[in-house]
Specification:
By secondary structure, this protein is α/β, with parallel strands linked by helices. 58% of the residues lie in helices and 9% in strands. The structure holds adenosine-5'-triphosphate and magnesium ion (MG).
Length: 323
């Protein structure tokens, strides 16, 4: 029997209705998740941010200095509420440390803390380097530097490898770094209540940078040193990176990691926690390859999927050492 077209049309309509209803249900299911995500974007409390800072491995002196700074700012705000004299202080900071010692991570948390206590309106972090500050021709640099500052108003302007701005570190030819530093100093003063500038980089080169302009060093409230991590700290950092990403390091991996970090060449270019991160990421790839070659790869449980083995780590280290 041939189906009558209107019957067929009804069937299609019904099927369409069913799909639509299912989609609605799925959307309802998702709503709490969407709401949760919205909450995540809400500002965190000081305690939550402080807890994340505390969870970083090592960095005791850095944590201590930040705690001191925050205590000072909170009391300062309370004094102000009582109409007591306001000690006007610059909050600009210098972060001295080798690559991968946690400078960017701490700067981001610091910005959030400033936001949380209301010292800065937004508490965001704008990260720039020389290319974001220095222009190609006369006049271009001041405009570019000012633009970077404007973007950071209400938050933290984090200038990575700030020494690249000082003249002695530049190649031949155009030297607009000086112009950038001069503009920056001026803007740091103009916006002292709306902006915190953090300049960061290798300790030796930062020394040079701070000496490159007579008025520069005195504009910063504190110089915070980020020490290199020792082997045990790098092991703990790798474990934390794994934990945060829903992995676990299997049996014997602690000893394996110790050997890997002991052997790593600690030249000036050593990546510290960045090396630990690369090692972990590389090991996670090795684990995936190992698991996919497993005949039972289609039915792996959580245990297998989450565990990184000593051999994964050793293979990862070999790859990294080959560069
Ligand atoms: N103390 C720590 N505990 C846990 N993880 C850390 C710690 N320090 C750094 N890390 C992790 O190591 C990575 C590199 O850190 P970060 O980018 O903050 O270093 P950096 O000093 O800014 O490096 P660079 O000079 O290369 O920019 C990040 O993934 C960060 O989460
Ligand atoms: Mg960084």
């Amino acid at each position: 029997m041939v189906r009558r077209p209107d019957k067929l049309a009804k069937k299609i309509r019904d099927a369409g209705e069913q799909v639509r209803r299912q989609a609605e249900i799925r959307l309802d299911d998702r709503l709490p998740a969407i709401a949760r995500r919205k909450n995540d974007a809400e500002p965190r409390t000081m305690e939550e941010i402080q807890a994340e800072l505390d969870s970083l491995v090592g960095l005791e002196s850095v944590k201590e200095q930040i705690r001191t700074q925050m205590a000072f700012l909170q009391i300062k705000a309370q004094r102000k509420e009582h109409g007591m004299a306001d000690v006007s202080t610059s909050q600009h900071l210098v972060f001295m440390g080798n690559p991968g010692t946690g400078k960017t991570t701490v700067a981001r948390l610091l910005a959030e803390m400033y936001g949380s206590i209301g010292m800065l309106e937004k508490g965001h972090l704008v990260e720039v380097d020389r290319a974001g500050m220095v222009g190609q021709y006369v006049g271009h640099t001041a405009a570019k530097t000012t633009k970077a500052v404007k973007k950071a108003l209400g938050g933290v302007l984090f200038i990575d490898e700030a020494y690249a701005l000082s003249p002695q570190n530049m190649g031949l030819g155009n030297d607009f770094g000086t112009e950038s530093v001069e503009t920056l100093i001026k803007r740091m003063e103009d916006h002292r209540n709306e902006l915190v500038v953090v300049v960061a980089g290798y300790p030796k080169l930062m020394e040079k940078f701070l000496k490159s302009n007579p008025g520069l060093r005195s504009r910063f409230a504190r110089e915070i040193t980020f020490p290199d991590y020792n082997d045990a700290e790098l092991v703990a950092i790798t474990e934390k990176l794994a934990r945060d990403a829903d992995y676990r390091l299997g049996e014997g991996t602690e000893a394996t990691l110790m050997v890997i970090f002991e052997r790593a060449a600690r030249t000036e270019a050593f990546g510290n926690a960045r090396y630990a991160r690369n090692l972990f990421e590389q090991a996670a790839s090795r684990q995936a390859v190992r698991l996919s070659e497993d005949p039972a790869s289609a039915t792996l449980g959580m245990e297998a999927l989450s565990t990184i083995s000593s051999e994964d780590l050793r293979a990862a280290a070999r790859l990294l050492d080959q560069g």
